[in-house]
Amino acid sequence: EQIEKGGYEHFMLKEIFEQPKSVHDTMRGRLLVDEGVIKMAGIWDHIEKFKNANRIIIIACGTSWHAGLIGEYLIEEYARIPVEVEYASEFRYRNPIITDKDVVIAISQSGETADTMAALKLAKEKGAFIYGICNVVDSSIARITDAGSYTHAGPEIGVASTKAFTAQLTILTLIAFKLGKHNGNLGNADFMSLIAELEAIPKRIEDVLSSTHELVQNIAKDFVNATNFLYLGRGYNYPAALEGALKLKEISYIHAEGYPAAEMKHGPIALIDENMPIVIIAPKRGHYDKIVSNVQEIKARKGKVIAVVNKGDTQVSAMADYVIEIPETSECFSPIVASVPLQLLAYYIAVYRGANVDQPRNLAKSVTVE
Ligand code: AGP
């Protein structure tokens, strides 16, 4: 096992550090920047299905559902196809309206999640075209779908999903750009600049890992005894906030909630006092001014702010108690980059609390029962 961990203390840390490679591997052979092409046989062979789709329904659980939410932002922004994102467990039991004009995308690292599988079967029975985004090759979900794209993240052993999540985001980004280019909603110049930026994302992740690792480790020390955490973000980073909170709660057992930052005033603001740590994702591109006022509201109530900002940020940084810098990217890529320090934060808080990081209590890597 020590050999498999490659010198890291836990699989989770190894997998966090593998992300430059796993994201790169997921794009390899698909993203051909010089030719200005995204090659995805699963999409291309069924392009009429996507082109004529009334809507895309994404079904998933847990972290994969968070990736699905970001997929909604991506596909609606770049391909202008309506997207709905559903928890598989809710979808399967609520008698959903599904037609043969719907495309249903299931996202699952393991490809074995019982609820996702059952929801897919239902969609298939009702005539929808079903597409899989799985990490485990030849898994049950990969086998029953009409087509799909594998995330090439490699085996993920830690129960807390990390590299599978960023690989799922990579696939969803490729799908959104490919569909948008094909249906004319994403113009050639924008397409070219976005794919060039996407190609450089593994390098951005590498930079974030090296520039934030030690810092985040130190920040984590101050929150070992925290009992609650709030995670806030807007736009693309709202699901990134949900994912940051899920990571923390599943491995450290600290109660954490993710919220869209603007929803704070509709309830969670009541929780804020000097004992409430709040992680706020505040990149330059993405409603920055609105986030600035959210941070002002938090500081007025003495909340402890851990801000994830772009390099060179001044406004949010001046108010925050802790500042984690990430490189500036187009908004659609920011959840990939911002998730990395949040994974590290959850990891180190859990390690300092003496928790079993790779195998947290009560959790299984794949949930094959209801
Ligand atoms: C992620 O950290 C969790 N362990 C869990 O939410 C997981 O994402 C969920 O069970 C879905 O699994 P899947 O992607 O294998 O379907």
From TrEMBL:
Example of a GO cellular component annotation carried by this entry: cytosol
Positions annotated as active site in the UniProt record: K365 (for fru-6p isomerization activity)
Top-level enzyme category: transferase
Record field: catalytic activity: D-fructose 6-phosphate + L-glutamine = D-glucosamine 6-phosphate + L-glutamate
GO molecular function: carbohydrate derivative binding; glutamine-fructose-6-phosphate transaminase (isomerizing) activity
GO biological process, any: fructose 6-phosphate metabolic process
Localisation per UniProt entry: Cytoplasm
Domain SIS: 46-185, 219-360
EC code: 2.6.1.16
Record keywords: Aminotransferase, Cytoplasm, Glutamine amidotransferase, Repeat, Transferase
Functional description taken from the UniProt entry: Catalyzes the first step in hexosamine metabolism, converting fructose-6P into glucosamine-6P using glutamine as a nitrogen source.
Subunit note: Homodimer.
Name of the protein: Glutamine--fructose-6-phosphate aminotransferase [isomerizing]
Organism of derivation: Chryseobacterium taiwanense
